[in-house]
Amino acid sequence: MLFTSNKTTLGLSQILTADQLAFFNQNGFIHIKQFVDRQTVNLFLSEIQWIEQQWLAENREKVNGTPIKYGYDEQGQRIVQRFAFASQFSPILEAFLNDDRLQGLTQLLAPYEGRISPQEKDGLVVNHYVRTPESNFSRMGWHTDSPRDLFLGQRILPMLNVGLHLDDCPQSNGGLRVLPGTHRQHALMTLFRKKQFIDHRPDRREVGFDIEAGDLTIHNGNLWHRVEQSPNLGASSRRRVMYIPIITGNKKPKNASSKTPFYHRFAKRIQD
C-alpha cells in the first residue's frame, strides 16, 4: 500500500491495514481507488436508471417516509436527483451491500458495533448532481451528519458515510470536500463550527478528491464536509454517487408506514 503525496488516497485489501486505520482515526476519511470496475459501475447505473423510470411512471413521492427529490437534466427531462432505499428496488444493489469488503469497513466504528442496514435511516441513497438552469441540486453546503440524530430525539452516535462514485470527477469539477480531523472536535463544534447546509464557502483547510468512476470515499459522520458545485453546466457537470450508511445504536427499521422525519422538511427549505 502506498500513500499519495497528500496522503488522501489509500489502497484497500480484504482487511484494513493498521496504516489505514491510523490514517482514518487521525483524519476522519479515506479515499479508495477502483473499489469496483467500470463494468460494475455501468451495471449499477443501469439499475438506478430502471428504478428512476419506475418512480417517474408512478409519480412516487416517498419511500418509507423519505421524500424523493426530483429535478431536471440538461435536456429538460425530469429526473430523480435523490433516491432513498434504492437497494429495496434492485436485487443487484441489495447484493452489493453484502460485499465482504463493505462489511469489513464496520471496524472503523470500533469500539462500537457497526452495521450496514438498508432498512434504516434513508437506506441506500443515490444522489445525482447535475448543474442546469432548472436544477437546484448541484451542490450541498458544509454539514455534519450529526444533527439528524438530534432531530430524532436521540444522542449523537458515530456513523460512516461511504460513497461509491459512478462518474469521473476531478477536483476541478467540484464534488466532495472535507475538513480533516474535525470528527475529533468538541460536540458543540460538530454542530456549530459552520452554518449547517447554508455555508458554501471554501475553507483553506479543506481537502478535495480526484475521483474516478468506481472509487470509494469513506468519512466519519461527524467530519465537516460539503459538495462543491461544478463550474460546468449540463452533462459535463454530472456526478452520481451511491451512499452506504454504516451505523450503530438500536435498530430502527423503516417501512411504508413510517412518517417523514422533520430534518427532511428542514433540508428541503434550505436547499430549494
Automatic annotation (TrEMBL):
One of its GO terms (molecular function) is dioxygenase activity. PANTHER family: ECTOINE DIOXYGENASE, PHYTANOYL-COA DIOXYGENASE DOMAIN CONTAINING 1. SUPFAM superfamilies: Clavaminate synthase-like. Keywords: Dioxygenase, Oxidoreductase. This is Phytanoyl-CoA dioxygenase family protein. Its cofactor is Fe(2+). The keyword Oxidoreductase applies. InterPro entries: Phytyl_CoA_dOase-like. It comes from Fibrivirga algicola.
